[in-house]
Amino acid sequence: MREESIDPALVGVVVTVHNRHEYLDAALDTIFGQTLMPGHVVVVDDGSTRSATLEHLRAIETKYPVKVHAIANRGLAGARNFGRSLLDADYLLFLDDDDEILPDYLYATVAELEADSAVGVAYAGAEFFGDLDGVWDLPSYDPVEILWENMVYSSAVVRARAFDQVGGYDDTLRRGREDHDLWIRMTAAGWGFRRVSEVLFRYRQTSTSMNHSIGGDVGEMAKTYARIMRGSGDYYLQHADVLWEHIFELRSQNRRYRRLYGTLDERMKSLKGLVRRARNAMSANREGVGSGESGSPLRVRREVLGSEVDPRRGPLEISIRDGAP
Length: 325
Known about the structure:
The chain has 10 helices and 11 strands. The protein is an alpha/beta fold. The protein has 2 domains: 8-228, Spore Coat Polysaccharide Biosynthesis Protein SpsA, Chain A, CATH 3.90.550.10; 244-320. The radius of gyration is 30 Å and the shape is globular. The termini are far apart. Mean pLDDT is 86; it is low at 294-311 and 313-325.
């Protein structure tokens, strides 16, 4: 156990729930197992309708020192904003009901925020668990790269003053990426980010997670990031040259891959045709042998590799002999 020198009353935790409770106890166990115990913990029920979840939430207050607040469904961003409004704390952790934090997470991250008032966000190394296990190889935070790549997970610890300054989460982002949007706006406002190298956050992987649901819908992704860009338009314009360099590099890579795979597709079609003709020739040869015709070897020639054929060996040949091993 660490010797605690940080006032627990400075730390508040919001856990959001919507029609799922199966992992909630495990998440709460990790919150109340911290070496720096949070002074405030609230659970926000974001309009759950599932009877088993509602029953479980009624029992939670008797098992843990938390208060469950039920609201009409607002989406994840709206539920987190509501939870923040309930807390009188300097540092905020928004934890999803299925994720977990290791015992030193709050101490390590809050210590970074206490040490430097210019830092608005602190987080630690992370690992996957659930359907996928292993260390999460997060890129290092970069104030420009953050415009198109999110390298900070949603359960970073946030300075409340910084969170309030940028207006909290955008609750119109109902399909996800609300955390990425928040980090962009905090970056644009000049707040620093600090990462603790030790792995202290556990990110559960399931097939029903929001990242899976939106990640496969290009149209929804485009609408979401158009909204994010409009919300931080000045910051995007400030780095427009870097953004366009990134776009042109992606286009160049796309053209290279299209040329490569287009050529491979043509080669595969030729090879499939060759195999088909070879099988037909073998079948015809066997029928000829069965009728008393000569079983002389058949040679099937086909140049399928074009200019890539080794000129010393000539075109590709397949020789078929009936009964040959």
